[in-house]
Design a protein that fits this description.
single chain, alpha+beta, Thiol Ester Dehydrase, Chain A, 6 strands, 36% strand, globular
């Protein structure tokens, strides 16, 4: 299966759970995927704004969480682990209607931990930079045992 199809299946499974990710990021679109990297886009909608009319920091943190997860999926995993650490640096703002470009990279998947980083930008302006570490030891076992919905 092509990498982009695999990552799309992982993301579709997230959306099917109808949790916070599905609510906050329902408009997320995958643009391109290669081994360990994922480029996605999201248009800032009214429910993404803080009380001052800017893009909410909680949304940007969620994007780092999901972006790192999709980068791990782009490295061939469908079970992607449990977050152990997320850090986000808020560099500049984004406003209603801006198209966020989300560039996620998985640097390493070890036996226990996976390390990712995510850059969120609007055009050539960096909005936020994040790092995301996930515990993947149990995910390795799940990946060996299970298939994604729709896989043969």
């Amino acid at each position: 299966m092509a990498t982009i199809q695999h990552v799309q299946r992982v993301w579709t499974n997230f959306l099917k759970k109808e949790g916070f990710d599905a609510y906050a990021l329902s408009g997320l679109k995958l643009v391109s995927v290669s081994k360990g990297t994922c480029l996605a886009e999201l248009e800032v909608a009214p429910h993404h704004l803080n009380r001052l009319g800017g893009c909410h920091g909680g949304l940007l943190s969620t994007i780092v969480d999901v972006g790192g997860t999709l980068a791990i999926a782009a490295d061939g995993m469908h079970a992607t682990g449990i977050s152990t650490d997320i850090s986000v640096s808020f560099v500049s703002g984004a406003k209603l209607g801006d198209k966020l470009s989300i560039n996620s990279r998985c640097h390493k998947i070890g036996g226990s931990l996976a390390y990712t980083d995510v850059e969120i930008a609007v055009e050539d302006k960096v909005v936020a930079l994040g790092r995301h570490t996930k515990f993947v030891r149990l995910a390795h076992k799940l990946n060996a045992q299970q298939k994604l919905d729709g896989e043969a």
